[in-house]
Specification:
This protein is α+β, with helices and mostly antiparallel strands and 692 residues long. It folds into three domains: 117 residues, no CATH class; 260 residues, Immunoglobulin-like, CATH 2.60.40; 149 residues, Alpha Horseshoe (Serine Threonine Protein Phosphatase 5, Tetratricopeptide repeat). Helix content is 33%, strand content 27%. It contains 21 helices and 25 strands. The strands form five sheets. Strands 1, 8, 9, 10, 12 and 13 form a six-stranded antiparallel beta sheet that branches. Strands 14, 15, 16, 17, 19 and 22 form a six-stranded antiparallel beta sheet that branches. Strand 2 and strand 3 form a beta hairpin. Helix 13 packs antiparallel against helix 14 and helix 20 packs antiparallel against helix 21. It is globular and about 105 Å long.
Length: 692
C-alpha cells in the first residue's frame, strides 16, 4: 500500500514572539563578482527584485555550489503557497512575469525588458487591474498609468496607481514620481516655473483632470491640504512596492541554513520551518540545575500507513561555554504513533516539544536542533543561559504559565517545567486571555537571614509607563522556599502588551533583587493551546545525571571534579559499559592507569563491549611500562577497527622501547604512508635507518 504523507499546518497566533533570535557567525563577505556565472545570474537577474537584503547577504556568505543550490531550493520553498504539491505556483508566476517583461518592455530600450522600470514594477506587483495610455496627446508626453487594488495584505494601499512617462517624449518609459518629477514633467508646452507644482497641476487639469490628480498623489483617496506632491507616494515607490515580494517571507530560514549548513544532512537543508521557543533554568532540591525548554515548530508532519499515523523527531542539543568549548551535547529520538481518533483531536492544535537537561554552573550558548525524520524538515532555537554559582544569592528568571497542575502523576521524576511538584504549562509567546490566571514560578537561592525573616516578594504589572496592578507577599509565607509560586488573576486587564516585574524587598522596602518578563493580553476570543510531548526522565539521584555532569567537567578538562562524579555513576551501575568507559577516561586523565585496567578488564569477556576498551587498555599498559601487553591490546584494536595512525605510532613506540627496531620501523613506515605530514616522526625514522 502506498504511504501518504499528512502535514498539519499548526496555528500560529499573531502575537508578540518571544522566539529566541539566532546568531550567525561572521563569514567572509563576497561580492556577486566572486560567484560562479550560474549563481551570479540567479542573484543579479533571476531574483534581483524579489530577494530581501538579508537573504542576499546570506547567499553571498555561502562557500560552495552545493550550499548555493540548497539555498536556491529553500528560497523558492519559503515562497511556495502550496508546499504539499509538486508545483511551486509562486516560482512559476515569477518566471512568467520575467518572460512577459522581456517580450513587451524592452522594445524601446537597449536594456532587456526585466531591467526597465516597467519590467521591475511588473515583476514586483504582477498584472495591473487596468491600464490607461496617453501616447498621442498634443499637450503631454507619452504617459501610461497602471492601476492596482486589493493588495493591502502585503502592506500596500487599498487602491493606488503607478505611472510611467517618456522624459522629453523620447526613449523608454520611466517611473514617474510626484516628488521627483511633478506634473510639469508631463507637459510638453509648459513654460512656467519648473518648481511650481500648483501652476503645472492646473495646466494639466485643463485637458486631463484624472491625470493631474495622479501627478500629485499615486494613492487614491489620499487627503490633500495643498497641491504639493505626496510624500506618501514617494514612500510607496521607494520602499513599499520593492518590499512586496518578501513582505511575508520570514528570512529566518536563511540565517538557519547558514548556521547549520555543516551540521544537518543535505536532504534537510532546504526545509527550514519557523518556530517559537522558550528556555529557562531552575535548580531542583538536590542542587542540580536544569535547562528547561519548550520548542513549538510551525508544523508537524505525519506519515499515514494502514490507518496509523507515524512521525519521528530527533532532538540534538549543544551547550558551549564562553571559551567555545562544547561542554554538553546530546541527541534524542522520539517516535510518535497515533490512530485516526488521536490525530483528529490534535489536528487544529499547536505542537510543543518540551524537555530538560542538567548543566554545570557557568554561562553557555545553547543550541537546540529539531528534525522531523519523516518530512525531513528542521528548525532550531538558540539562547544564552546562565547557571548561577550554587553559593550565590540569586534569583532565577521568572516563568509565567497559563496552566499549573498540582496533581501531576510524574512527581519525583525530572520533567520539563515540573517545578516544586507542580506541572507548569508555559507558552513561548507569554500570551493570555483576560479571563486567564497567570501562574508564576521563580527561585531565590541562598537567601540572607534578614530577607528570609523580614523580606517580601513584590509583583507589579505595568503597561507602558502606567502601573496597572501591584501586590506583595512576605517571604515567610512561602512554604517551599527557595521555590516561590504565585497565581495572579488577569481579570479586567485590557488587551495590550504588559510587563511583570518581580522584586525582592527587605524590611525597609529596598529592592535587593528583581527580574521582569513581558506578556500579552490577547484580544482574540480564544488562544490555540498546544498538545505537549514531554517525556519524563529519571529522578536526580539516578546515576545517569552524575555521569552527565562528570562528562561536562571532563569536557572542561576539570579532571579533579569529573572523576568523583563519573566514579559515583560507575559504582552505582558497574556493569554499564558507558559508565565504565567514561570513568576510565577520567582515570586516564588523572594518570591512574592501574585503575583503568581494573575497571576495563572485566569487559574483555564481553565480545561486544571489548573493542571499546582496547585503546584505553593499550595506553594504560604503555604508561605503566608493560609494552608487550600494550602491543597486544593495540593490535587487537587494529584488528577490530582497522588502521589508526595514533595506535600505529603507539605500537611503534612500544616496539622501540622493547628494542624491536625493525618492528618499530614497520609500524612507523605504515603510519607515514597513511599520513606523510609527520615531520618529527619522519626524522626519527630516517635517523634509525641510518644507524642500521
Amino acid at each position: 500500500m502506498r504511504m501518504k504523507k499528512l502535514c498539519f499546518i499548526l496555528i500560529l497566533a499573531s502575537l508578540a514572539s518571544l522566539a529566541i533570535a539566532p546568531t550567525v557567525a561572521a563569514q567572509k563577505k563576497k561580492s556577486p563578482a566572486d560567484l560562479p556565472p550560474e549563481y551570479r545570474k540567479w542573484l543579479e537577474e533571476d531574483v534581483v527584485y524579489i530577494i530581501s537584503k538579508r537573504e542576499r547577504e546570506v547567499f553571498l556568505q555561502l562557500e560552495s555550489d552545493r550550499e548555493r543550490a540548497i539555498f536556491v531550493e529553500a528560497f523558492w520553498k519559503q515562497r511556495d503557497p502550496t508546499p504539499g504539491t509538486t508545483e511551486n505556483e509562486y516560482r512559476t508566476e515569477h518566471f512568467r512575469r520575467v518572460a512577459y517583461t522581456n517580450q513587451w518592455f524592452g522594445r524601446e530600450s537597449p536594456l532587456p525588458g526585466w531591467k526597465t522600470d516597467m519590467g521591475r514594477v511588473y515583476i514586483q506587483l504582477g498584472e495591473p487591474k487596468s491600464v490607461e495610455k496617453y501616447e498621442n496627446e498634443p499637450e503631454i508626453y507619452p504617459t501610461v498609468v497602471w492601476f492596482f487594488d486589493g493588495m493591502s495584505e502585503v502592506g500596500l494601499p487599498n487602491a493606488f496607481n503607478v505611472m510611467f512617462f517618456k522624459r522629453g517624449g523620447m526613449g523608454e518609459y520611466e517611473l514617474y514620481s510626484p516628488v521627483r518629477h511633478g506634473p510639469q514633467s508631463l507637459l510638453i508646452h509648459y513654460a512656467g516655473d519648473i518648481t511650481n507644482y500648483e501652476t503645472a497641476y492646473y495646466k494639466l487639469a485643463e485637458t486631463h483632470p484624472p491625470l493631474a490628480d495622479i501627478s500629485i498623489s499615486l494613492i487614491q483617496g489620499e487627503a490633500h491640504y495643498s497641491l504639493q506632491p505626496s510624500l506618501a507616494s514617494q514612500v510607496l515607490l521607494d520602499s513599499r512596492i520593492p518590499s512586496v515580494p518578501y513582505e511575508r517571507v520570514k528570512t529566518a530560514y536563511a540565517e538557519k541554513l547558514l548556521k547549520y549548513k555543516d551540521v544537518i544532512e543535505v536532504e534537510y537543508s532546504a526545509n527550514y520551518i519557523d518556530n517559537q521557543a522558550v528556555m529557562a533554568v531552575f535548580r531542583d532540591p538536590t542542587g542540580l540545575s536544569f535547562v528547561h525548554y519548550a520548542l513549538e515548530p510551525q508544523r508537524l508532519s505525519f506519515e499515514e500507513y494502514q490507518g496509523r499515523f507515524h512521525s519521528e523527531i530527533e532532538i540534538s542539543g549543544r551547550a558551549q561555554d564562553e571559551q567555545g568549548t562544547t561542554v554538553h551535547q546530546f541527541t534524542r529520538s522520539v517516535p510518535i504513533n497515533m490512530d485516526a481518533d488521536q490525530i483528529g483531536r490534535i489536528r487544529a492544535k499547536l505542537f510543543s516539544f518540551q524537555d530538560l537537561f542538567p548543566l554545570l554552573p557557568g554561562r553557555y550558548k545553547v543550541d537546540i536542533l529539531f528534525k522531523n525524520k519523516i518530512s525531513q524538515e528542521f528548525t532550531s532555537a538558540e539562547a544564552t543561559v546562565l547557571i548561577p554559582d550554587p553559593k550565590a544569592f540569586a534569583m532565577s528568571p521568572p516563568l509565567v504559565a497559563n496552566k499549573a497542575d498540582p496533581d501531576s502523576k510524574f512527581k519525583g521524576a525530572n520533567k520539563a517545567f515540573l517545578l516544586g511538584d507542580v506541572q507548569f504549562v508555559p507558552s513561548p509567546r507569554n500570551d493570555f486571555l483576560p479571563s486567564d490566571n497567570m501562574y508564576i514560578y521563580f527561585e531565590l537561592h541562598n537567601l540572607p537571614p534578614d530577607l528570609r525573616e523580614g523580606g517580601a516578594a513584590s509583583y507589579t504589572i505595568t503597561s507602558g509607563s502606567q502601573n496597572v496592578r501591584s501586590t506583595s507577599r512576605p517571604l515567610q509565607e512561602y512554604a517551599q522556599l527557595p521555590s516561590l509560586s504565585e497565581e495572579i488573576s488577569l481579570a479586567n486587564l485590557q488587551p495590550a502588551y504588559y510587563e511583570l516585574k518581580i522584586s525582592v524587598l527587605d524590611r525597609a522596602q529596598k529592592e535587593r533583587l528583581s527580574a521582569s518578563v513581558p506578556f500579552i493580553i490577547s484580544p482574540v476570543a480564544s488562544l490555540p493551546r498546544p498538545w505537549v510531548l514531554s517525556l519524563p526522565q529519571p529522578p536526580s539521584n539516578d546515576p545517569s545525571f552524575a555521569n552527565i555532569l562528570g562528562n561536562q567537567y571532563l569536557n572542561k578538562k576539570d579532571f579533579a571534579r569529573a572523576r568523583p562524579l563519573l566514579e559515583a555513576a560507575y559504582r552505582r551501575a558497574p556493569t554499564s559499559e558507558r559508565y565504565a568507559l567514561d570513568y576510565c577516561q577520567a582515570l586516564s586523565a588523572t594518570k591512574d592507569y592501574q585503575g583503568v585496567k581494573e575497571v576495563a578488564f572485566p569487559f574483555l569477556r564481553d565480545e561486544q563491549a571489548k573493542p571499546n576498551f582496547l585503546q584505553l587498555l593499550g595506553q594504560s599498559s604503555e604508561a605503566l611500562g608493560e609494552y608487550g601487553q600494550a602491543i597486544s591490546y593495540y593490535q587487537d584494536y587494529l584488528s577490530h577497527f582497522g588502521t589508526n595512525i595514533v595506535v600505529l605510532n603507539a605500537v611503534g613506540e612500544c616496539h622501540f622501547r622493547l628494542g624491536n627496531i625493525a618492528e618499530a620501523l614497520l609500524a612507523w613506515d605504515k603510519s607515514l604512508e597513511l599520513e606523510p605530514k609527520q615531520e618529527k616522526l619522519r626524522e626519527r625514522v630516517r635517523g634509525l635507518k641510518e644507524k642500521k
